[in-house]
Amino acid sequence: MKMHLPVLAVAGMVAAFAATTVAAQAQNVRVRGAIESVDGNTVMVKSRDGASLKLVLKDNANVRGVVKASLADVKAATNVAITSRPRADGTLEAVELRIFPPGPFNSFHGDWDLTPGSFMTNGSAQTSVAAVDGQVLTVEYKIPPDKTDVKKILVTPKTIIATTVAGSKDDLKPGLKVFVAGAPKLPDGALDVANIQVEKEIPPPQ
User: Fold this and answer.
1) How far is CA 138 from the centre of its chain?
2) Using H for helix, E for strand and C for coil, what is the string for the chain?
3) 2, 44, 84, 179: which could form a disulfide with 36 (CB 3.0–4.6 Å)?
């Protein structure tokens, strides 16, 4: 029995670390709303549910401006994030399509909170095929630890298509809409923000 104790101890440490990581992720807050005021690195935002949120931007926070794009900008292997809703026949119809620059990317498919019943598919665009009312994109995404799968998503003329461009804290002005994918809470309840998207040509996903 003693020979198994180190293994059990390590397993316990791994489980504790995993639980801590999950707990930390669960505490992250997603922000959708409009800027009320800006004071240095402190940005007050009125969220879409009416709550007033205090965002504290890191000194090196990454600010991105949201601008218009088109389906022609989606090439093979382009990283995309697509919010979709199922039609009555089960087809996923894109509400919004965001084009991401090359580089590290959180690839997944799962439930999303943009609207009730919506999904988010983050992945690599593979093919685009014409459909009666748009284009059907095939998007490949990762399933941990080492598998992949695909989703076919219909992009229609009503789909909002956008990308982001490099910005700065000077772009954060009262009245503009912002989006933060996830930020941990500081001890005083404020949000510690490392990445933020702000309205430039069009609003970020609200």
Assistant:
1) 19
2) CHHHHHHHHHHHHHHHHHHHHHHHHHHCEEEEEEEEEEECCEEEEEECCCCEEEEEEEEEEEEEEEEECCHHHCCCCCEEEEEEEECCCCCEEEEEEEEECCCCCCCEEEECCCCCCCEEEEEEEEEEEEECCEEEEEEEEEECCCEEEEEEEEECCCCEEEEEEECCHHHCCCCCEEEEEEECECCCCCEEEEEEEEECCCCCCC
3) 44
Q: What are phi and psi of 19, to 5 degrees?
A: -65, -40
pLDDT in tens, 96-111: 999 998 888 899 999 9
Distance CA 200, CA 53 (A): 21
The model scores a pTM over 0.85 = no
* C-alpha span between 91 and 141 (Å, rounded): 18
